[in-house]
Amino acid sequence: MDNESKIKRILFVQQELTDWKSARAWGYNFHIGLEEGFAANGIEVTTLLSSWFPVARRLCAAKQFDQVWINDVIHMFEPKGWRHYRLTMPDLEWLATLAPIRLGFVIESLKYTDNDYREAPFLSNYPNILKKTLPYLTHVMAIDENDIECIRDVCDIPVTLLVPPVPYYNISRTISLPPTVKPVFRGSPYGERAKWLKIPFIKELLDHQLNYGNDGDLPEIFDRLHRYLYPQAIQSDNHLIKLYDIYLDSIRKIRRQSFEIYLNDLRQGGSVVNLPSYGKVFTGRVYEGMAAGRPVITSKYENRPRMNALFEDDRDILLFPPDQPEIMAQQIRKVMDNPDFGRVIATNAMHKMLNFHTTEKRVCQILEWIATGREADFDTILPENDFKPMQSNQTLDIAPQKLLEQFESGFKKQLTPFNFFKYELFRLKRNLYKLLQRIEAMVRKLIN
Who's near 15: CB < 8 A, 6+ residues apart? Predict the structure, then answer.
């Protein structure tokens, strides 16, 4: 796409949680990694993380935008206590004044089974939240194709399918022979998958680690960045912007490095397994496993022709029915017993990822869809754009620990006596909240 005559300035609003245990669920590839797609397509992007939204107007003052991209328009408006700043309708009203085009991502399915609702009542909130946010949007991308018509019925705006991408440089170019070791599953045990993980032959086959991604110093650095984050206490706009830039570069560095660690972890298995989830879609783990250079074994779902056409069973993916764990076990053994077969599956998937599912190409497709209404064709190889590497800020070469030290010292220096008092009250309130959480957890443990 010729961007010379099209969009130049985008405000990218991305949800950011405030503790690593929760935040690690957001993969780099469909989080701040989207910046790589903007840079490759010549877009001037301003990234605004929701953790700093209380001072969003100050950070965006005097800036002009052609589009606003919001990732995402459900979870960012869902109350979660201290895990993130909850955006409100006045926040959306303000965003709607910034650009004529406002794109919202819906990264969860909107409809679930009765059993899902019983196990996870919060799922029933998603349609209601979306009904409140849709009037402020001009375009929507939904990860579940079965939700597209429902969204159009609520609000008559363009809606298309969202397929998660992975940055080009994160995709393995060479596929090593998968070792005859256990496949890896990295995910929380809930719903149907929790039952599967208790089946003896599944437990025997899978390498499942619940606390993956907590090694090294990155989680601690991430948590310290957010432990007492109160940007409202900074009076000077110039200093506020400088501190936010350090914070943003810290998040970039942490999430890039943690994603690389995660991909390397997936490579330790002979394959990557994706157990059934509440959402009946190919989750990010499918694309991440392919990017890691491993054959992916995942559940398939009926009545989703566009999703099912993305990959071909027994050619670049291995599928199993979501109610038949014994079929999943058969697929696992096929790879373990025949590593050459697994290598072929992984190699074919790698070519599909490079041809159709890079972040650089996905952003290009989204811009084209907004400009022309033409939806992405995931069977046609895009012409190779003159993709340029993401422009690095000087601070990106600094270690995360050093950025953290700069942020903490810079923040404290900018606290005036009055704002220091407000900041201390904020810290006290947060500490009391965390104490109440621990007491509540202890009570629940005693009751159970």
Answer: 26, 49, 50, 71, 72, 75, 76, 84
